[in-house]
Amino acid sequence: MVDRGLEMEAVHFTTPFCNCDKCSVNAMAEKFDIPIHHIFSGQDFLDLLVDPPHGYGSQMNICIDCRILMLRKARELGEKMGADFYVTGEVLGQRPFSQRMRAMRLIEREAGLEGKILRPLSAKLLPATDVEKEGAVDRESLYAIKGRRRLPQMELAEELGVYDYPCPSGGCLLTDPQFARRLRDYLENEGKPVLEEMVFLRIGRHFRVDGARVIVGRNEGENNRLQSLADVRGIPRMSVSGHMGPVTVLMGGVNKEVIGRSAAITVRYSDAPRDILVDVEYHDGALRALKAVAVSDEELDSMRI
Fold it and tell me: Domains in the chain: how many in total?
């Protein structure tokens, strides 16, 4: 679009479940001298996630409602800027849920942008937009790419000098089966999602213990993060004394049963012997000493989310 002499500005959207690299987006905008706006969809996105009007995809992804929300926000920004039309990199048939013809037409209609969204990679396969009808963009100079293979886009990127682009799949955690399982468990047991709690869903091993959610760090980085989050937010945490092992945080209704079983889980993932009582430190505003034997693998599996 820039090569065709049009004045463009970019909008970069993120949600609590994105694996996107904001730095690479900024670098790309700087390279091509395009102003960029960053928009975060937070609690408004989470509210949609509970009961999406257009349903879920293969996992917990709400791609159609996500696109509608993004384009509504783009329209709000565009109206302030005086934008004439909107451009996306969508390819017809690339995403089975949101990039079918019917879904694309539905999305632009509910976003209030009928005829205003130009999809140049697939434009020749789609109805002409207002910008094409008005002659601002020559339809014949656009593309007819379709399907899930990405080779044409990769060849075009090389032609345009675009090299540092993100992986074309895996950008949203909601499509990941393991993460989707955690989120479904959260909604079933804890109700409406709260923005500041979503960070915990991205970290560690997760267990459901007597109604509480127990999160166990998998490595030093996750241990440090869990400890920091727990201390800042006043969430109980525990770790094994005298042995290398995880930081464990306890969220929800914490009672004596939850504390005891969480201690046994913590010992299980530490370097401590599994068949003897092991010292565990429990922090809940004060420091308490506990003893626990590692939980059996069978019981562990029964609690795993």
Answer: 2
